[in-house]
Design goal:
Elements lengths: L3 E11 L5 H6 L1 E11 L2 H6 L8 H13 L6 H13 L4 E9 L13 E7 L2
Antiparallel strand pairs: 1-2, 2-3, 3-4
Helix pairs in contact: 3-4
Length: 120
């Protein structure tokens, strides 16, 4: 399957991290998602009901980022990929969570975790 829906740069404020300051003030996280699924039914019908509504998906992803804090962005990415796979039409999902304000004592551009999961 080569059909994909891609959502990049979704920004949301969350309170994830190991350190108390991360939990207290929070920070912005950036999420990229790629869904693998058959888009032929949507293309043929021209109906949003035949595909993943990316606006509604974005709402669900932001709710997870803004929701219950976790220590690791690995855990956050796992929760986000589960949201993507909750739609039975999605065959595989890749989620990248960027933490550009991670508490690193050196200059850096970004730190990110990427998970790919598929239906078995």
């Amino acid at each position: 399957m080569t059909d994909r829906i891609v959502l990049t740069g979704l920004r949301a404020h969350g309170r994830h991290g190991v350190y108390p300051q991360e939990r207290a003030t929070g920070q912005d996280f950036v999420v990229d998602v790629e869904l693998t699924m058959d888009l032929a039914p949507a293309a043929a019908s021209d109906r949003v009901e035949e595909t993943v509504h990316y606006g509604e998906l974005a709402d669900r992803l932001v709710a997870v980022v803004a929701g219950e804090p976790v220590n690791l962005i690995e855990t956050l990415a796992d929760r986000l990929v589960a949201v993507c796979l909750a739609d039975g039409r999605v065959l595989a999902a890749t989620v990248t969570v960027h933490k550009p304000q991670a508490p690193i004592a050196h200059e850096f551009v970004d730190v990110a975790v990427t998970l790919t999961r598929s239906r078995r």
